[in-house]
Amino acid sequence: MEQEALGQRDDLIDPSTITRWHFTKLLEQPKEYEETDQRSPFPWRADLNAKIALWHGNISRLNVHAITHSTNEQMNDKNPISDEIMRQGGPGLVREVAEDLKVCRTGEAKLSKGHYLPARFVIHSVGPRYNIKYLTAAESALYSCYRTVLQICKETEIRVLGLGALHTLRRNYPPDKGAHIAVRTVRRFLEKFSDSVDLIIFCCNEENLESYRKILPLYFPRNSVEEEDAIKHLPKDIGNEEGEPVIKERQIRILDKPAFAALKQSSSADGLVDFEQTIDLNKEFAQSTVIDVGHHPFASMQEDPDKIKTARMLSNAAEIRQMENKRRYEKLLKQAKTEDLTDIAALHCLYRTGVDKFGRPIMVFIGKHYPAHTIDAEKALLYLIRVMDPVVENDYVVVYFHTEVTGKNQPPMAYMKMAYNYLDVRYKRNLKHFYIVHPTWWSKVATWFFTTFTASDIKGKVHNLRGVQFLYTKMGPDQIDVPSFVQEYDIKVNGARYVVPDSDTADGL
Description:
CATH class of the largest domain: Alpha Beta
Strand order of the largest sheet: 1-6-5-2-4-3
Strand content: 5-15%
Number of helices: 17
Order of helices and strands: HHEEHEEHEHEHHEHHEHHEEHEHHEHEHH
Number of strands: 13
CATH superfamily of the largest domain: Leucine Aminopeptidase, subunit E, domain 1
Number of domains: 3
């Protein structure tokens, strides 16, 4: 009955249609390293790259041996992905989870049948809640999630796995930090048990796609260039041989025969030890611990080691991140100045016009002119940098005309996040106002989401304006080039002449 139902579906995703990781870049001959060369702890291995794939889509449609399901301890989490998996699995899956599995603790994983899902099995797991105060506990629990899932696959001979993210923003887990643990754990597992797996598909959504695209090459480099570059970008903690996070503060060494170790250190030059001294030392050790804690924080009564480690990490992270962003932006700026971008300029979707009432330059973006689904996204970003880099040295404002924008003009949220993170800090610091003219209900929701979760530092600078006359209270009509179709639309929805209330004329200025 279940197989009949599956056979009638024409929207299943077969693993053979997903490009494997080693085919996503041109192949080359392996580099011959000399003994003095620095090697990545995760060297380029084509055989392991052939075992993984990166895919963006609905995990419940994957026709694989098993998929993962990130849920809560009661296994009744309510979110779009969980709802879709349970709905597609049907009442049989709902009943098995509720009656047989019942609960799953954080860091654990449990196996169920797939029922009406294309996947034969579902591996349910509960990722940890992220709290900077309990950083090491969250990292260890997340590692346990991924490692347990992979162990279940090995033990039950699941050879093709759809591995969705078990770290989620619902539990406040940063996508980048979680992706490091996920990918690293898979890498270490494949190094030891690659024969037990045919394919592991990292299944992504808008929330984490860019994180995986950025982090996968660090642990699964596709050529010698990526392998060398990974050395500079890998985190300090790359885990142990299993991929498990290492907590140095909690590594306590148990000495073999500590009394003799102490006697060895206090012995005379000729190697002999005074008998009375031996007795005294034995008494001393009999009354003390046999654990050599060395410089461990417990020995000096330091406070929470996790807190100390976190403070140290935070003090360096901001500086490192700023340096990396600056280096990346300078590389893009150099490319933007040399690349042929005439085709992007011809769209006339981004240009500089006059100044506002405070003398600040105005940048205009025409949403209707931006072909989001056909444009070369990389070249579009380069053109934006070329045009705006001279402007953002000082205070400036942006006017975005959302007039008559449709779905084909709206770039994916993941691309907007990527572009925003690539821009130099000057763009955010010197932006004074971002005006959205003719917003829709959907654009307001998308703007709120973007400025809440990605661009919180400009949230208070974004203003929705119902019409062109509202815009003219911020800048003179002679200072901004408004397209004719925007003027016509404005007259159509607002009338030929309308008065702007006084309460709207001083919007945040």
